[in-house]
Predict the structure.
Amino acid sequence: MTKMERMKDKIRKLRARASDGASSESEAVKAIEIADKLMAEHALTVKDLEKAVDSGGIETGSWTKGTKKLHHVQYLAASISLLTETNGWVATDTDGIESLVFMGFSADVEYALYLSDLCFNAM
């Protein structure tokens, strides 16, 4: 593993700690601050981190209504992520459109997107 790959792995772990529900607010803030600092020092973007992960069979998928506000499905996103063993977050594009993003193995991501659609239609 190259030095850059180790750095990317460290940043991924810091970001995972920040999004972990078991982390306290101060731990999450500190992890984000360190990750942001390391990303700035090494001129890395979130896309750079995802590219390295994508090559190992991991993919991302997004669910959106195409509006600036997500549906109430966003409140179920954490549960869907736990159930499907994916990492999930809310992303906003440059136009302000929000979407749920799930990252994991392709079958898990597909399952998470299916559950999001199912919950949306049920609501």
Summary: The mean pLDDT is 80. Residues 10 and 35 are 8 Å apart (CA to CA). The first strand starts at residue 58 and ends at 63. The first helix runs from residue 3 to 19.
